[in-house]
Amino acid sequence: MAANIAVLIVLSVLGYSGAEALPTWVLAVSALTLWLPFMLMLRVLSMRSGSGSVRRDFAISFTAKDLWGVPLGLLSQLIVVVAVTIPFNWLFPSVFNSENVEKRAKDLFNTATGGWMVVLVLVVVFGAPFVEEVIYRGFIQQYLGSSIGKISALIVSSLWFAGIHFQVAEFPGLFAFSIVLGLCFMRTQRLGLAIVTHVAFNATALAALALTQYI
């Protein structure tokens, strides 16, 4: 909550409060404003209640097998999200149409020009997947699982993940994708596979936008 409030304050100070599309540099600043309190919180929790190692307490580790996340992320973006969104589009076409579902990604892509495209890739393809997986799988899902059960923790963390993006049109697809990520974590008890899957998912979205723009 504090991190999200801080982001709103930063956007307001920069003059982009309520803006539909953010310049890439504003996106980067707001992302850092959001992520730094998250990671600081995890560090404090690890020091006070864990082993003192964020990597160990929140299951941050990788193996070669995590590369299976590349095709898994690709298929999640191109098949899972599309398949889950189609019924909502039939029932509520004014909300869940492809234009609304793709709007935020297109806005981010279209505002990134020149060298800012590199910054966009760093933020969206690498930064966001890492921080979000540590928070939603390594922290929320892992520790809720010990109190409410693994399946309930999977559902709650997925609802949280989808809801925190504040995009109604994207909610069904993000929830379904979060289930995939949560199952990756449940299967491996590590974040490596989930992070690689998330990286591939976001990279596929940007690549698809680039293809439609330039080809």
Write a compact overview of the structure shown.
The protein has 215 residues and is mainly α. It is built from 9 helices and no strands.
Please explain how this structure is put together.
The protein is mainly α and about 220 residues long. The protein has one domain (about 50-215). The protein is built from 9 helices and no strands. The protein has helices spanning about 1-15, 25-50, 55, 70-90, 100-110, 115-150, 150-165, 170-190, 190-215. The longest helix has about 35 residues, at about 115-150.
List the helices and strands and how they pair.
Layout lengths: L1 H13 L9 H26 L4 H4 L11 H23 L6 H14 L4 H33 L1 H14 L7 H18 L3 H23 L1
Helix pairs in contact: 1-2, 2-6, 4-8, 4-9, 6-7, 6-9, 7-8, 8-9
Q: Based on the structure, what is the oligomeric state of the protein chains?
A: single chain
Give helix and strand order, one letter per element, not per position.
Answer: HHHHHHHHH
Helical stretch tally = 9
Strand content bin: under 5%
Largest β-sheet summary: none
* N- to C-terminal distance: 41 Å
Q: Work out the count of structural domains.
A: 1
Helix content: over 70%
Low-confidence stretches: none
Tell me, briefly, the overall form: globular
Counting helices, strands and paired strands, the structural category is mainly alpha
What does the radius of gyration come to? 17 Å
Can you count the beta strands? 0
Tell me, rounded to a whole number, the average pLDDT: 93
